[in-house]
Amino acid sequence: MIWALADGWTMTRRNLTHWTRRPGQVIVGLLFPVLLVLMFGFLLGGGMAVPGGGDYREYLLPGMFALTMVFGIETTFAAVAQDADRGVTDRFRSIPMARSAVVAGRNAADMLNATAGLLVMLLCGLAVGWRWHEGLASAALAVALLLWLRFAMLWVGIWLGLVSRNPELLTAVQILVWPVGFLSSAVTFPATMPAWLGAVAEWNPLSATANAARELFGNPAAGGDGWAAQHPVLLAVLWPAVLVAVFLPLAVARWQALDR
């Protein structure tokens, strides 16, 4: 266990060192969600009316927090696929190190990056007038649920990266992720969609986390009478758990199959 932890920390430092040598890429990744907040909050938000009343920007920010966690899958995929494509992953597997170290290091580094990104988003939200209203404990639980979603998305990204082994397929991942991200309650309201589409949006894992964060922060809710809309916190726990239960074993199996 000590060997595995030491090797995992070494791989984490490797990933963090890459970011320090390419600060522009990290800065762009942190500021892009801020641009989305400004675009939706100020350019498009004037025409948005929250069901039941409330400020649209207070509705928007928890959705953008969750959307940022989902978009993190692209960072994970690109890093894993690039290492696999360049033979770095095969090199790591050929030297005497814990077999779990590469995946553990990717996990730790990406979760640190996600935490930094979420902190930037929280500060951005405070700057544009967003506030939480339910106390520090509820706010901390909302942050934990957001990071829990990112942890689940991380395993999806690792599996996709190991399967494809081609960083040029990042565009294909984006084509998959962006519709899923916006087919939710992150920036708009499922009640305004056609009935069948609204039902899909309500059951989107992203919607569950966004709605749970709104409830815990005390921000305006998305509305809706369905079971998913009425139990967002429970779904925000269960959906990522399901994704981890599915994609963690798939990622581990794919990792073990690389040398076959």
UniProtKB/TrEMBL annotation:
It is a multi-pass membrane protein. The chain crosses the membrane at residues 26-47, 59-81, 111-130, 136-163, 175-197, 233-253. InterPro entries: ABC2_TM (IPR013525), ABC2_TM_bact-type (IPR047817), ABC_2_transport (IPR000412), Nod_factor_ABC_transporter (IPR051784). One of its GO terms (cellular component) is ATP-binding cassette (ABC) transporter complex. It is found in: Cell membrane; Membrane. Residues 24-258 form the ABC transmembrane type-2 domain. Keywords: Antibiotic resistance, Cell membrane, Membrane, Transmembrane, Transmembrane helix, Transport. GO terms for molecular function: ABC-type transporter activity. The keyword S-adenosyl-L-methionine does not apply. It comes from the Bacteria. GO terms for biological process: response to antibiotic. Pfam families: ABC2_membrane. Belongs to the ABC-2 integral membrane protein family. This is Transport permease protein. The lineage of its organism: Bacteria, Bacillati, Actinomycetota, Actinomycetes, Micromonosporales.
